[in-house]
DNA sequence: GTATTTTTGTTAAAAAATTCACATTGTGAA
DNA sequence: TTCACAATGTGAATTTTTTAACAAAAATAC
């Protein structure tokens, strides 16, 4: 397998999420068009993605749910799991910790960081909150590879720099301030307002078309 | 202007966010490569996007920040603004309301919905919380066009159906359960775990390459 | 046992998005 | 003035992503 498209990676994660639900419900096989329906895409798209990862279904029976879950895991997960930290234990940081807690996954939130002395030293949903001062040390000790940035926007850039200095390998930035990282650090930025504005644009477009 | 690419719409929103900051700082003009730097894309990409919306900069001086902000507004915003509701006033719902509060924008969160009697009747950051039972009425009365779904995953599908019945035009689904809507309703789904798994994949890839 | 249906896997085509390459031109320096 | 530079704007080329089309084969129907 040479090189998976970006979009395929995202979809594989989504397929797995859907497949896990099917598996829980006791479904042993699934057709490409069933997966497609759930994800609002086409069956060809699904088959193409699975082709790219080299998975072969059974003709007329579809794909083996369990096998496919496992294969997707082999492709996208790190074998030994991967440690994650949240920087900024405010509304969004807490919400995320809460959301992740309990999700058994190769990704584990093992630390939070904050500057607020009232938060430092406590744990939230089992995740200890450390002082930002100790970041380098904690990142090293816990082999943390990914940081989720949920500090106030004005501290985003400085905090991203700290993360890079601490040796983090990937950053997921939820603040609305784009940050800069060296090219060996993988960066993903997401702003909810952008998404909402996109929805709004297409709603407006549709209304204009109706006229 | 015939038809803007999906990606261009997202970037326009991001450009505007960056431009607003520049404007606040008193910067009157900006070059395509400056915008590009902020957004981690190429200058050609920026120029192409602006070409598509028909904006023309000044040679050697760049783009007029104020003018461009206004033009992007004309393209992506609805003239009279657009009302938004949050369904599920839990961790994430509250965090979002908090985040949006005060952002002056054409998009305004005007209502929240919940099933918890302790929450119904209160306001959060100025947004009143209504019973989900009253959704149809409130949506109509307040001309709400977009719903942000932040209910527990198991209620996502039923709640999306309610929104559609209430006459909503766009849904932004933050739950990990894909929902179904008729084709005249614009749907955008986002799962933070997918994004995190994507970051993790590329981190893993980089580590493998290093070996 | 043959035909029909249904589903996979894949090659080829199309569409969408990005980048290249470069003509154009305003600005400032020599 | 003339030259070199630095920026925009865009047609063409390239790359990426999606979709169409269809052969192959298993299951089912008759
Ligand atoms: N709330 C949302 O739904 C939402 C959505 C999208 C983006 N965001 C963005 O996410 C960020 C956080 O939002 P929030 O609502 O959680 O804000 P918040 O104010 O509730 O939380 C911020 C936290 O960061 C801590 N902090 C401050 N400075 C810090 C520093 N230098 N290092 C580490 N921690 C620091 C604060 O003590 C606080 O606990 C903001 O940038 C916001 O724009 C929020
Ligand atoms: N917390 C996060 O960071 C996060 C991130 C991504 C996605 N999500 C998803 O967002 C959703 C909400 O997460 P949360 O952490 O805010 O959960 P939460 O339990 O804190 O909040 C859910 C809220 O929805 C209300 N509710 C329950 N049933 C309802 C119904 N039928 N109609 C309306 N309201 C109802 C509850 O009373 C509660 O206030 C979940 O689906 C979760 O998976 C959360």
Layout of secondary structure:
The structure is a homodimer of 211-residue chains.
Chain A: H1 6-24, E1 29-30, H2 32-39, H3 43-52, E2 63-64, H4 65-76, E3 82-87, H5 91-100, E4 107-114, E5 123-124, E6 127-131, H6 135-141, E7 144-149, H7 156-166, E8 170-173, E9 186-189, H8 192-210
Parallel strand pairs in A: 3-4, 3-7, 4-6, 7-8, 8-9
Antiparallel strand pairs in A: 1-2, 5-6
Helix pairs in contact in A: 1-4, 2-3, 6-7
The structure holds a DNA duplex (30 and 30 nucleotides).
Structural class, from secondary structure content of chain A?
alpha/beta
Please state roughly what percent of the residues of chain A sit in beta strands, choosing from under 5%, 5-15%, 15-25%, 25-35%, 35-45% or over 45%.
15-25%
Widest sheet, order of strands of chain A: 5-6-4-3-7-8-9
Bound molecules: nicotinamide-adenine-dinucleotide
The first-level CATH class name of the largest domain in chain A:
Alpha Beta
Largest interface: A-B, 59 and 59 residues
- pLDDT below 50 for ≥5 consecutive residues: which ranges of chain A? none
**What's the CATH architecture name of the largest domain in chain A?**
3-Layer(aba) Sandwich
Write a structural description:
2 copies of one chain form a homodimer. Chain A has 2 domains: 6-74, Winged helix-like DNA-binding domain superfamily/Winged helix DNA-binding domain (Arc Repressor Mutant, subunit A, Orthogonal Bundle), CATH 1.10.10; 82-193, Rossmann fold. In chain A, strand 3 (82-87), helix 5 and strand 4 (107-114) form a beta-alpha-beta unit. In chain A, strands 5-6-4-3-7-8-9 form a 7-stranded mixed beta sheet. In chain A, strands 1-2 form a two-stranded antiparallel ribbon. Chain A is 45% helix and 18% strand. By secondary structure, chain A is of the alpha/beta class. In chain A, helix 2 crosses helix 3 (43-52) and helix 6 crosses helix 7. At the A-B interface, helix 1, helix 5, strand 7, strand 8 and strand 9 of A face helix 1, helix 5, strand 7, strand 8 and strand 9 of B. One nicotinamide-adenine-dinucleotide sits between chains B (87-93, 113-116, 119, 132, 150-153, 155, 159, 174-176, 192) and A (95-96, 98-99). Chain A binds a DNA duplex (30 and 30 nucleotides) through helix 1 and helix 3.
């Amino acid at each position: 397998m040479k090189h998976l498209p970006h979009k395929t990676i995202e979809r594989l994660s989504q397929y797995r999420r859907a497949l896990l639900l099917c598996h829980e419900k006791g479904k042993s096989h699934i057709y490409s068009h069933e997966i497609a329906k759930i994800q609002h895409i086409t069956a060809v798209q699904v088959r193409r993605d699975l082709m790219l990862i080299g998975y072969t279904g059974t003709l007329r029976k579809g794909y083996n749910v369990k096998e496919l879950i496992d294969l997707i895991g082999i492709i996208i997960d790190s074998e030994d799991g991967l440690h994650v930290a949240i920087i900024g234990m405010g509304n969004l940081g807490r919400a995320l910790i809460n959301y992740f807690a309990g999700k058994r996954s190769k990704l584990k939130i093992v630390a939070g960081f904050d500057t607020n002395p009232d938060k430092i030293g406590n744990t939230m949903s089992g995740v200890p909150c450390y002082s930002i001062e100790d970041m380098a040390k904690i990142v090293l000790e816990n082999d943390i590879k990914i940081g989720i940035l949920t500090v106030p926007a004005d501290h985003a850039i400085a905090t991203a720099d700290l993360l890079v200095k601490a040796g983090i390998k990937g950053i997921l930035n939820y603040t609305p301030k784009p940050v800069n990282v060296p090219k060996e650090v993988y960066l993903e930025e997401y702003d909810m307002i952008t998404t909402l504005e996109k929805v709004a644009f297409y709603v407006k477009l549709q209304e204009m078309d109706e006229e």
